[in-house]
Amino acid sequence: DTAVSQTPKYLVTQMGNDKSIKCEQNLGHDTMYWYKQDSKKFLKIMFSYNNKELIINETVPNRFSPKSPDKAHLNLHINSLELGDSAVYFCASSQVGVNTEAFFGQGTRLTVV
Amino acid sequence: SQQGEEDPQALSIQEGENATMNCSYKTSINNLQWYRQNSGRGLVHLILIRSNEREKHSGRLRVTLDTSKKSSSLLITASRAADTASYFCATDASGSNYQLIWGAGTKLIIKP
To answer: Among A75, B17, B41, B75, which is 20 to 30 Å from A18 by CA?
Structure first.
C-alpha cells in the first residue's frame, strides 16, 4: 500500500493553462505539505496544512493554492502556468509534533511549454 | 529559506568504501533528519537525531550531531551500488511550526 500517493506522475502543459495535482495519504497523519524541487535539487516548502492551520511560504505566488477536501487529501491547484513553474512537486505528510519524520509521495514532474 | 548546507555537493567512491556527508545549519533545532532520494523518486526518511543526542546508528548508517558547531555528519559504511542516490539533511528548527528546512543535498555515486 502506498503511504503518500500523488497523481499524475508527469504533467506537460502549455503556458497559461490551469492544472491540478492530487495527493492522498493513508497514514492518518494530520499535516500535509507541498514542496517544489527545482533543477538544482533544492527543496522548497510551499505549503503546510492541517485541519487547523494553513501555513503559506510567502514566496509562493498566489497562482498556487492548496485545496484540502478532507484530512487525507491535499491537492495543489496552479493557475496561469508559467515556464518557471516547471519543476518536480512533492507531496508529503507527517504527524504534527516534535521529532516526527515526513513521508513523501513519488513526485509530479511538471513541464510547462 | 535553505538552512542546511550539505558538503560535498557530489561524492563518487568505490563500492565497499565508506561515504561521509556533512550538513551545517544556522539556527537552534529540535532534531536533524537525513533522507535519501533515488533518481526520479520521492524522499525516504533514513534517520532522525534529536538535539540532545550526539550519535545514532541504524544498520550501516551512523549519524553524529554537534550542536555547538551546528553540524551533522552521515556515514555510510561498506557502501553498495544501491546506495547511489542524493542525500538530504533537514532540520526541524525550534519555533518553526515543525516545518523541515532542507539542504541542497549530496549526490553520492557508488562505482561497482
So the answer is: B41
Domains annotated for chain B, with CATH where assigned, are: 5-111 (2.60.40.10)
Domains in chain A and their CATH numbers? 4-94 (2.60.40.10)
Residue A60 at interface with chain B, using a CB cutoff of 8 Å = no
> Is A41 or A1 the better-scoring residue by pLDDT?
A41
Fill in the amino acid letter for B74: L
Minimum distance, in Å, between the CA of residue A109 and any CA atom of chain B: 9
**B64 at interface of A, judged by CB pairs closer than 8 A:** no
pLDDT tens for A3-23 read 999 999 999 999 999 999 999
- Measured in angstroms, the CA of B107 and the nearest CA of chain A are apart by 10
Cα B59 from Cα B15, distance rounded (Å)? 17
Q: How many CB atoms lie within 10 A of CB A45?
A: 21
Closest CB to B31: pick one of A90, A94, A99: A99
- Rounded CA-CA distance B109/B84 in Å is 5
Quick check: B82 and B25 in contact, CB under 8 A? no
Rg (CA), chain A: 13
